[in-house]
Design brief:
binds flavin-adenine dinucleotide, five-stranded parallel β-sheet, 20 strands, seven-stranded antiparallel β-sheet, single chain, about 400 residues, alpha+beta, 15 helices
């Protein structure tokens, strides 16, 4: 394949992995990126400690991709969590497994990894074209880019699109590609927020006093769209409009699906997982001895100020005077979730290019010669490193497909 070139559009982890794979196979690689630099979302992911992947063994790992586990399992057959850790080591970045099983670079940062990776790709011959926003195709099939020097047109032997989802659009991935692909006959499920917070609509008091406060040591009870009940312990945060944070993100796919179907959904919290209903009721039924309810809830039920405020949000004065009802609410405080927070605020996106619109190498059936990779595909996963792992794996798979096709041509 002398002089064959691959155009990769999008310089996130999926696009960069595609570039590395194609370059190693001897293809000329041009990588186009709308922003002034690549990997901006990857860098932000590193702010809270870059969670590269997870040590959970397969097939439990694959199950995190929900209804897409079979397809993504095949991507992972080519590049799994172990391969990702080996790859990072090859970049000079050792990783460790945290107490939760999550895998991080030793320094927990994204910047050194990204800097070294881009430098090596450049040294290997990958041509980076930043400030190149892809606009679609000309009638003759050339790629159109908006650049500071005006529109540029590029003919490519093969194209990998790795344009990301629609969360945090200020970092470059704005989902504008959805209509471009739909117009070309590629089926795209609308992008939706994943790993997101939810609106509840707190009282003014709750917002003023507790927005931003952590809700610690709680157990969430919820139902998935099939009506199966689930429970999970963790922590979340009271936001100005509702609730967010790691525990809520982990449930967000189920919660979002129920809201889409029913208009709203219920999430219940056990605010005192270490105590039984009977213990709480007995303690709260004792004479008040001049102490306020808030004081008693703190002393007798171990509730902090946020948890006490939550009880006040849900129960009225008469209910708060009933020890049995209060004990029930502490063990299963019902909150009605009205809607997910907007996609722009979410950690990641659900929806995207339907996997049924792609062949096994991730090439668009409706657009021969165009492969897709990363978060722009229709899959979702919880946080925990599963997002990046699937982005890397699909970037490599798409590039391999393009390499094979160019070799055949
Ligand atoms: C705050 C935050 C923290 C996160 N933390 C983690 C974590 O710890 N672990 C984890 O696994 N995941 C994490 N993620 C998710 C992870 O960062 C993403 O899933 C991943 O970056 C997606 O990779 P991608 O290559 O598919 O897309 P992106 O990283 O979004 O890259 C797509 C690129 O395409 C470019 N682009 C878009 N449209 C165009 C166009 N028209 N023309 C040219 N270029 C274009 C964009 O500018 C962007 O650079 C986090 C996300 C956020 C927002």
């Amino acid at each position: 394949m002398p002089n064959a070139t691959l155009s990769i559009i999008g310089g996130g982890p999926a696009g960069l992995m595609a570039a590395e794979t194609a370059c190693a196979a001897g293809l000329g690689v041009d990588l186009y990126e709308a922003m002034g630099s690549v990997g901006r979302k990857f860098l932000i992911a590193g702010k809270g400690g870059l969670n590269l992947t997870h040590s959970e063994p397969r097939p439990a790992f694959d199950a995190r991709y929900r209804e897409r586990q079979a397809q993504i399992g095949r991507w992972l057959d080519g590049f799994d969590a172990g391969a990702l850790r080996d790859w990072a080591r090859g970049q000079g970045i050792d990783t460790y497994v945290g107490s939760s099983g999550r895998v991080f670079p030793m320094d927990r940062k994204a910047a050194p990894l990204l800097r070294g990776w881009v430098r090596r790709l450049r040294d290997a011959g990958v041509r980076f074209h930043v400030h190149h926003r892809w606009l679609g195709w000309t009638e003759q099939g050339a790629l159109r880019f908006d650049t500071p020097e005006g529109e540029r047109r590029v003919d490519a032997d093969a194209v990998v699109l790795a344009l990301g989802g629609g969360s945090w659009p200020q970092l470059g991935s704005d989902g504008a590609w959805q209509d471009l692909l739909r117009a070309r006959g590629v089926e795209v499920a609308p992008l939706q927020p994943a790993n997101c917070g939810f609106d509840i609509g707190w009282s003014e008091f709750m917002v003023r006093r507790h927005a931003g406060a952590p809700l610690k040591h709680v157990v969430a009870h919820w139902q998935d769209a099939a009506g199966t009940g689930h429970s999970r312990q963790g922590e979340c945060v009271i936001s100005e409009t509702g609730i967010e944070g790691s525990l809520v993100y982990a449930l967000s796919a189920d919660l979002r699906e129920c809201i889409t179907r029913d208009g709203s959904t219920q999430l219940a919290f056990d605010l005192a997982p270490g105590r039984t209903h009977e213990q709480l009721q007995a303690a709260l039924a004792r004479p008040a001895g001049g102490r306020s309810l808030g004081e008693r809830l703190r002393r007798l039920a171990g509730l902090d100020a946020v948890k006490v405020a939550l009880l006040h949000e849900v129960l009225d004065q008469a209910q708060l005077a009933d020890a049995g009802l209060v004990a029930s609410a502490i063990k299963r405080l019902p909150l009605r979730l009205l809607r997910p927070r907007p996609l722009a605020e979410a950690i990641s996106s659900a929806g995207g290019v339907r996997l049924e619109a792609l062949d096994d190498s991730l090439m668009c059936k409706a657009l021969p010669g165009v492969w897709c990779a990363g978060e722009m595909l229709d899959w979702e996963a919880p946080t925990g490193g599963y997002l990046l792992t699937a982005c890397f794996a699909s970037g490599q798979l798409a590039a391999r497909g393009a390499i094979a096709a160019v070799a055949r041509a």
